[in-house]
Amino acid sequence: MSDSSEPPTADGDDAADESHVVTAFLRYRGEILLLRRSDAVGTYRGQWGGVSGFAEDDPDAQVRAEIREETGLEDDDVSLVRSGRPVRFRDELADGGEREWVVHPYLFDVTVDEPAIERSEEHDALEWVPPTEIVAPGFAAATADRDAFETVPELWTAYERVAPTVRSIAADDEHGAAHLSIRALEVLRDRAGLLVAEREDFGPDPEGEREEIAELARRLLEARPSMAVLRNRVNRVMAEAAATDADAEPDSEGAPAALEAALTGIDRALAADEEAAATAAESIDGTVLTLSRSGTVREALRNGEPSRVFVAESRPAREGVAVAEELAADDTPECPVTVHTDAAAAHVLASEDVDRVVVGADTIRPDGAVVNKTGTRAVAITAAREDIPVTVVAATDKVSTREEVNLESGDRSAVYDGEAAVDVLNPTFDVTPADYVTEFATERGALAPDELEPVVEELRDVEDWGDQ
Predict the structure, then answer these.
(1) Element of type H or E holding 420
(2) What's the burial of 404, exposed, middle or buried (CB within 10 Å: 0-12/13-18/19+)?
(3) Alpha-carbon gap, residue 404 to 349, rounded angstroms
(4) How far apart are the first and last CA of the chain?
């Protein structure tokens, strides 16, 4: 906790012993930033924590000030994910007294690539690590040879207040399927890490640990049933955990096997999404049209060589507008960005010299049909009429093993909130037949729709983990 502003105290006033602080966990590629407190601070020297500081007035404003001061990251470099309920605890002070700490936890995503952290004098070391290193050290390859972190009190409790959950994944209507699949694997990782840590107090219980993690995995699978990538990645982690479990030494059965599989799964998923974007980037030049919000598509556009980008606004949430703003902020004046209404997409394809349509995918059916944000089907059909190739950017984990896909619908009030006796349709996704897809840009290279069968068979092989 930053000591740049010690809280006021008053003799005989119990409330004065209550110190409000903020703690921000900065997340990047599934890991969080931990900072070791230096001799320049007054409390918890040599211990590791998040970005912290005393909250004199408004914690929401103070936490951003602490991020700027302690990391050098500006407000635009981070995005607030959520804040959590305060964590209260009492701790002894060096002078023999006690203080009640009230910790306000926050989780931020770092939105810049390969962030360069500029430490303040309040810290003398930093590490990017999986959060489970707080309670179950030694499982991340990069830190396996390092001693366990000695953290400030209740750091794991603070993290749990803002960590991803089944509920937060089910309620998220802002992020794409690939993003949410990583969050799902983080949920599995965090639970497995906690179970590993609890062995110190309660001893190993491999069978009970397996059952608890399996139940959590099933709840994750039910949270977003239309997202094949979430299902496939959870299934693969559980299948690999079961396979490792079968050959593991007694001390490595149960939670340790699941933790290893989850950590590996997160790394593999992130790499697959990046490689799919790299495949797409190879074919991106000239004028491109896209829609909706796909982190993989944005990465492909950033690494490709488009001369102009058209972005449909993607109602009702209008996430396409945010995409257009992000692309325009990438400081590439030689590539103008134009946002337009969804209804104008067909006109743009017919009247502008568009070289390629590039879209993401929520799910790819076994026959090559693409489930994506509503409007994709109309764009793809129009592109075929205008002889414009359509590239779908997606890791192969987005291929579904099921013919039928549950299409989610959005809030009715986003379309109409009046009092007239009218019905409302707000489909969030539509289905684009494989005939209108030119190629899938994947981590395995560019695949035609009729080349997906081997992928489907591989994914079916990991679905029966519960029977192993």
Answers:
(1) none
(2) exposed
(3) 30
(4) 47
Q: What is the CATH number of the domain that holds 317?
A: 3.40.50.10470
Q: Which of 159, 193, 225 is the last residue of a domain?
A: 159
Q: Which amino acid is at 185?
A: L
Q: Which among 135, 159, 183 is the end of a domain?
A: 159
> C-alpha distances in angstroms, 77 versus 73, 153, 362?
6, 28, 26
Residue closest to 388 by CA, chosen among 292, 295, 310, 331: 310
Give residue-wise pLDDT tens across range 77-86: 999 999 999 9
Nearest to 291 by CA among 387, 403, 372: 372
Query: Structure tokens of 276?
Result: 């799919």
Segments forming the whole domain that contains residue 127: 1-6+16-159
Give the model confidence (pLDDT) of 170-224 as tens digits. 999 878 888 999 999 999 999 999 999 999 889 999 999 999 999 999 999 999 8
Residue 165 and residue 297: Cα distance in Å, rounded?
A: 26
pLDDT given at position 136: 86
The label of the residue with tokens 């994910």 reads 81
- Are 154 and 288 members of one domain? no
Mean pLDDT of successive 10-residue segments in the chain (468 residues)? 44 60 97 96 92 90 96 95 95 75 96 93 95 83 59 95 97 87 97 94 92 97 90 96 85 91 96 96 95 90 94 88 87 82 96 96 94 94 97 96 79 82 85 96 96 95 80
Residues with a catalytic annotation lie at 362
Distances (CA, A) of 214 to 22, 145, 221, 253, 466: 34, 30, 11, 14, 8
Q: Which residues contact 387 (CB under 8 A, 6 or more apart)?
A: none
Asked if 322 and 293 touch (Cβ cutoff 8 Å), the reply is yes
Contact at 8 Å (CB) between 360 and 176?
Answer: yes
Number of domains in the chain: 2
Task: Decide if 207 contacts 257 (C-beta within 8 A).
Answer: no
